[in-house]
Write a structure and sequence with these properties.
Number of helices of chain B: 18
Strand order of the largest sheet of chain B: 1-2
Strand content of chain B: under 5%
Low-confidence stretches of chain A: none
Number of helices of chain A: 8
Number of strands of chain B: 2
Order of helices and strands of chain A: EEEHEHEHHHEHEHEEH
Bound molecules: adenosine-5'-diphosphate, magnesium ion
Order of helices and strands of chain B: HHHEEHHHHHHHHHHHHHHH
Mean pLDDT of chain A: 90
Helix content of chain A: 25-40%
Radius of gyration of chain A: 18 Å
Helix content of chain B: over 70%
Shape of chain A: globular
Distance between the termini of chain A: 30 Å
Mean pLDDT of chain B: 89
Distance between the termini of chain B: 19 Å
Oligomer: heterodimer
Low-confidence stretches of chain B: 110-124
Structural class of chain A: alpha/beta
Largest sheet of chain A: 6 strands, mixed
């Protein structure tokens, strides 16, 4: 079998917080153009997984790789190849969307003009009249759009999303899912943590169910039936499987 | 990268309501104090000048009388304040403004040999400089205490990390950005101060240099506070703990250190009380030091020496006035003894001043406070410089009157007279404060302490960058 090279990969990853084991022997591959949904309840280890790719955590054993290289050995990898969108996109409240985008892009080493920034925000779906307003007036969905704009400007190889649609209204969530799909179709590898089964089924190519730090089941999102997925997820959640 | 961080920090701080409200209130307080102290200084200077002129005129218009009697009329001299003293009145509240110059006795400005008062109280003064060294750091604490913890709490720190921001660039960018925002409060204060001083006084080059140096040193002082606040904010988990620690640091440096230092200085090198001090001088004059012999023995020896010198056997036969000659001899000895005791006392003041720095490990405020007094010319060293000049002037005019007395009489008669032309020929006391180099030399220890604090603060900042995990 000829597997495409993975952009994101975890090999036998174990992450402990002091005595507590948050990730237990995780193996995971996200190739180019693939949206991988990590499905699981609270405390399953989704955020820890993402944090490890971002080097916010270090592996206790095992390793993670970005295009075959370990970000823990080469910290510049994250900066160069990863776009990160947390559940609450953290922005500077006192500055406008345009200013935030420009600032974060500068840090990423990309200089953009004001017009460009406005274009990027529009492309990410942020309405024009909001561009110059302070972020403190933004809704969660609007912040997500600024986050998306930052991610897309970076031309990242991979995108890490942590509960991106929780708290968004259905139409905003749907719109967001479309944008993720487009990004993946343009070649980005996407790892998305979510506890929203519907959202996972809607955008993902592969779905992994996580529980207590373990990847307990994996599906091809295009072939698995919604009912089957729902039953498995609930079964794991209730501890029946 | 760092420019972007500086810019962002600057914009965010400027738009933060805290800077505007706190900064404007502080600015108003500062301007209020400055107006008051400029006005006060202006008045003092005028008063001193007019009293000085009147006193000298009264001296000049004395009637025909014995020159020594005229000397006893005495002359008042005043320490001229530098314009910079409007920013810091320093020791003025504790030391008098005038010096009374008379024969036989050296005076201190409102003598207070136990300078305990000076050491303990000079820090509690609410003056213009209080705004600068105590209140502005409080503004810094209020603006900075959550500069890193807020990024941690809101999650922007993770965003920054995911963008590969260098931790050193982040904390130093914050430092510079905050300082830039902070200078928005400082520059209007500076401009107002310059205009006020320029309008009320004629500023010499030396005054301008002193002002510039004062500004630079205060910038160092503020940098220390900003750096420590950022470091604390990165180090402690929550904004609350950071705020608490920073307030403790502020309190310790501004209020506790000076008192602790004063206590240490006083217990290590106590001052004599006034009675002891004067009694010791009297005793040394009466009994003599280093085997000089007692007052009577010295006088006897002097008389013999004078008689031999003029080759006569009786005082009555001397061609010059012996009363004046003898008085001048005694005064000479008394001057020596006074100088000895005065220098010892003032050396102790200076030593105590240095010893207060023992408490400088609590914070940099002690050093900047002392620096600002020195640059304002309102410290012990400038005071001493003035006193020494006044003492020299005292010798000058007393010796002049003795010259007249001695030359216009002979033997033991006391018939010498002087007239208005003589009194008028006494030159005015023409004193100018020492220059910046003198101030720098005086303040060298303070500067070292301040720079050590700067080094410590920047080291803490660098170390905190290492702990900057999301
Ligand atoms: N900073 C931390 N310190 C200690 N334990 C943590 C920390 N972060 C997460 N955990 C624990 O690790 C486990 C996985 O957490 P997390 O990755 O946040 O799960 P999820 O994102 O799936 O809800 C949980 O049991 C959680 O309590
Ligand atoms: Mg989570």
């Amino acid at each position: 079998m000829n597997t495409p090279p993975a952009v994101l990969e975890a090999k036998n990853l174990i992450v402990n917080y002091k005595q507590h084991c948050a990730i237990d022997s995780l193996n995971l591959r996200v190739p180019k153009g693939c949206v991988y949904a990590l499905l699981g309840g609270n405390g399953a280890g989704k955020t820890t997984t993402i944090s490890t790719f971002l080097t916010f955590n270090s592996p206790t054993s095992g390793a993670v790789f970005i295009e075959g290289e370990s970000p823990h050995e080469n910290p510049d990898l994250v900066r160069a190849k990863i776009a990160y969108l947390p559940e609450n996109v953290a922005l500077y409240e006192m500055m406008s969307g345009v200013e935030n985008l420009t600032f974060f892009c500068t840090l990423a080493g990309i200089t953009i003009a004001r017009e460009q920034a406005q274009q990027l925000l529009s492309d990410s779906g942020l309405q024009d009249d909001a561009h110059g307003k302070r972020v403190s007036m933004y809704s969660k969905g609007m912040r997500q759009k600024v986050g998306l704009a930052i991610a897309s400007t970076k031309h990242a190889k991979a995108m890490l999303l942590d509960e991106p649609t929780s708290g968004l209204d259905p139409s905003a969530a749907n719109d967001f899912a479309q944008r993720i799909r487009t990004a993946a179709d343009n070649g980005m590898a996407v790892l998305m943590a979510t506890h929203d089964l519907f959202n996972a089924k809607q955008v993902a190519d592969r779905i992994g169910i996580m529980k207590s730090g373990r990847l307990v089941e994996e599906f091809d999102a295009h072939t698995v039936q919604h009912d089957e997925l729902e039953q498995k997820y609930l079964a794991h959640a209730r501890g029946l499987a | 990268m760092i420019t972007a961080i500086i810019r962002k920090e600057f914009i965010a701080t400027v738009r933060d309501g805290r800077l505007l409200t706190l900064g404007c209130s502080l600015l108003l307080i500062f301007i209020g104090f400055l107006l008051a102290s400029t006005f006060q200084l202006q008045q003092l200077r005028q008063e001193k000048e007019s009293v000085g002129i009147t006193a000298k005129e009264q001296w000049n218009t004395q009637s025909v009388k014995n020159p020594h009697a005229a000397a006893h009329y005495g002359i008042y001299v005043f320490k001229p304040d530098l314009p910079v003293a409007a920013l810091d009145s320093g020791l003025r509240p504790f030391i008098g403004q005038s010096l009374w110059l008379e024969p036989h006795k050296r005076n201190l400005e409102r003598f207070n040999p136990s300078a305990d008062d000076i050491l303990a109280n000079r820090f509690g003064q609410t003056t213009t400089s209080f705004v600068l060294y105590a209140l502005l750091p409080l503004l810094i604490v209020a603006l900075t205490f959550n500069s890193v913890s807020q990024e941690r709490e809101r999650g922007t720190l993770r965003m920054l990390h995911s963008l590969g921001v260098n931790a050193n660039a982040l904390v130093f960018g914050k430092l510079l950005g905050l300082l830039a925002a902070f200078s928005l409060v400082l520059s209007p204060a500076l401009i107002v101060a310059l205009i006020l001083l320029q309008q009320n006084f004629t500023l010499s080059v030396d005054d301008l240099l002193r002002l510039t140096l004062l500004l630079l040193l205060f910038l160092v002082y503020y940098t220390i506070f900003v750096a420590i606040a950022i470091a604390a904010s990165a180090y402690f988990k929550t904004s609350r703990v950071t705020l608490f620690c920073l307030l403790a640091f502020w309190l310790g440096g501004v209020f506790i250190a000076p008192r602790l230092g004063a206590v240490a200085a006083q217990s290590l090198t106590p001052n004599p009380d006034a009675k002891q001090f004067w009694a010791a001088i009297k005793k040394d004059i009466d009994q003599g030091i280093n085997g000089d012999g007692s007052h009577e023995q010295r006088e006897k020896a002097f008389e013999a020496q004078v008689l031999a010198q003029y080759n006569v056997s009786r005082k009555e036969d001397l061609p010059v006035g012996f009363v004046s000659l003898n008085r001048q001899f005694n005064d000479g000895y008394s001057v020596r003894i006074h100088a000895l005791h005065f220098d010892r006392l003032r050396d102790n003041f200076t030593l105590q001043q240095h010893l207060t720095h023992l408490a400088s490990w609590l914070g940099p405020s002690l050093a900047i406070r002392s620096l600002s007094m020195t640059l304002a010319g309102m410290d012990l060293a400038h005071q001493r410089h003035f006193e020494d000049a006044a003492e020299e002037y005292r010798h000058y005019f007393i010796n002049l009157t003795e010259d007249w007395d001695r030359g216009r009489s002979h033997g033991t008669e006391r018939g010498a007279k002087g007239e208005e032309a003589d009194w008028r020929s006494v030159k005015d006391f023409d004193y100018s404060a020492p220059d910046l180099l003198f101030a720098l030399h005086t303040a060298r220890l303070d500067i070292v302490v301040l720079l050590l604090w700067l080094a410590l603060a920047l080291t803490l900042l660098t170390l905190s960058a290492k702990r900057l995990t999301p």
